[in-house]
Amino acid sequence: MVDPKKKKKKKKPLDLNRRAMPKQAPEVRSHNFGEVALGYPAALAIEEAKRCIQCPKPKCVDNCPVEINIPGFIKAIAEGDFARGIQIMKEKNCLPAVCGRVCPQEEQCEEVCVLVKKEGQIAVGRLERFIADWEAEQGKIEIPKKAPKTGKKVAVVGGGPAGLTVAGDLIQLGHEVTIFEALHKMGGVLIYGIPEFRLPKAIVQREVDYLGALGVELVTDFVVGKTRTVDSILDEYDVVFVGSGAGLPWFMDVPGENLNGVYSANEYLTRMNLMKGFLFPEYHTPIKEHKRVMVMGGGNVAMDCARTALRLGAESRIIYRRSRSELPARLEEIENAEEEGVIFDFLTNPVKYIGDENGWVKEIECLRMELGEPDSSGRRRPVPMEGSNFIMPADAVVCAIGNSPNPLIAATTPGLETGRGGTIKVDPETMKTSKDRVWAAGDVVTGAATVILAMGEGRKAARSMHQFLTA
Amino acid sequence: MFKVVASRMIVPNMHLLTLEAPNVAREAQPGQFVILRAEEEGERIPLSIADWDADLGTVTVIFMNVGSTTNRLAALQRETSIPTVVGPLGNATEIEKYGTVLCVGGCYGIGSMFPIARALKEKGNRVITLVEGRSSYLFYWEERLKAVSDKTIQITRDGTKGYQGHISRLPDILKDIDEKPDRVIINGCTFLMKRGSDVTRPMEIDTWVSLNPIMIDGTGMCGVCRVSIGGETKFACVDGPDFDGHQVNWDELLQRRKTYMTEEVVPLRTSRCEEHRLRAQGK
Predict the structure, then answer these.
(1) For residue B251, what are the domain limits?
(2) Closest residue of B to A181, CA-based?
(3) Nearest chain B Cα to A263, which residue?
(4) ipTM of model
(5) Is A270 in contact with B84 (Cβ distance < 8 A)?
(6) Are both B41 and B11 inside the same structural domain?
(7) Is the predicted pLDDT of residue A464 greater than 80, yes or no?
(8) Is residue A418 within 8 Å of residue A258, measured between CB atoms?
(9) pLDDT at position B269, please?
């Protein structure tokens, strides 16, 4: 069909119909831990891919932390050549099934798509996920050719997104790579933090297995800083990469915070995800059956906690001191939470947790807030309204207000400079730390941020480490 | 996987487990702990290290069979293996030359006190070891403790060995044996540590205890092990496990340890008696 109003009659009209991805219905998914989004079927993926106008100077690539050839892999999908699509993807991204699910594409590639002004931006994330899942369905994963062995040894501290990326990049360049992970499973926040319904653990395992197949040595149950120090590892390895993440939970210093039933988001999510508490007693880590769970905070982690509580049958509420438009979580996650029935209490801040005679939290005392002038983050500052105190019944509180880096490695590694909030200081171009032969990236450098940012900066570190090793 | 080198019940309900964990054995120090998982589906539990052998690469823990995971650990056979032994975690017990040190152990803490007493002795302290229990048949490692102590004392609730009573008798006992320790270190159940700290407070003796709250990762990530020390929240896994016994909020610790009391026993229900009874009654 040709639009008669258009001057250049050869051009096909823009298709602005961003294809929706099938999802489990809210009333169904709020009672199970299966993945919420179901992914594009092939035909729908091809339709979506065909909408891409293949800009000669694609802005999406510039705005991708790992510089994926986005028009390239989308073109391959449009042509039905999925094998080529995944190949192009894996040139830059070794964890596409993960990134396709948890990257904030709306702030990256999709935000700068030329179609965004007409609200028809290409669903890059959904296509990324499609191509990764297609490969997994084929049952055989293509192992790319590795560069000849360099004889150099790389130790990666932490098996999360940054560490997995560094390991994936450096093994392909011919170095020997070992990942040391403190927990009993690789994946870091992908395993202990992000819930099953948003990122199935089998998918993370698939990506980890891929690294294993590439020849990366995977060591779990090994706490660097305790089991062995960075200095001792440097005796045996040429370089060390620290990607230990931001695993130290913040509390709010609210009276009653040590009552039973008050959790950090890390504890609540680790019990559920890493330890599979929702399968108790088949899995042995116990969880409580709560009736009213109050989640403090408004980020993605808070959404994850609230949606988890809902799936366990509780009334689930988000207590946030600002209003909806200031929520730091991804819009998609906020909408999912709302659809499923999470209740939001905006402009509300806890001042006290009140316990029963056995030391269990039974009520929370809150204050109403109003928005004042913008603060340093650019968001309007919440100001408490005098005398607006009120009580809400609750039998569990989850504190999801943020994390900072675990001090264990910095404290046991002389010569490793740290900055604000215990983050490791690095050269922003190379991710090299103040210590000889040690690099760092991810949340341990930036403070709690996103999976893709950790991967992007991990990639920078890998490049610089490779230069050092081959110089 | 970590191989089981030895597994046996050393006194009723108290079990010894020696595991092949060379990385842990190489770095272990008195007062540290490990986190174990008994099975792939298992929970993570912290256990104090009772001994280790860096040359053989083995680590020994002593624990009481009190719940679902300890029950599984207690049933382990030699030459089998478990999926997780990670550590050594926590800070080592501070070992300096204090003068006379009273080392108090009860329950599993008799085991974890052994390497502490040994290190204190090596450092040149006069070491008095005190073991406390319901009855003399619950004492173990007496010879080992004797070998590193200048004096050993027993307290039993039933009077079958040593002094009769409880740790609260400590002031009389010290008068009786004419000793005035410069420092007291207590390992064992929460009540022993609480009461022990209560009696040393008026005597103004520095008292250190090894706290044992619930943990998951043991590296400061989950925060379930938070304890109040002098009004300030600390994570027992990374800030402890040793703390000044006179500063601990014991009621809070006791209460937090009870969090999963009801759930803890669920995996132990194997007989289905209740189900049968209800069915027989037509319910």
Answers:
(1) 100-257
(2) B86
(3) B224
(4) 0.91
(5) no
(6) yes
(7) yes
(8) no
(9) 67
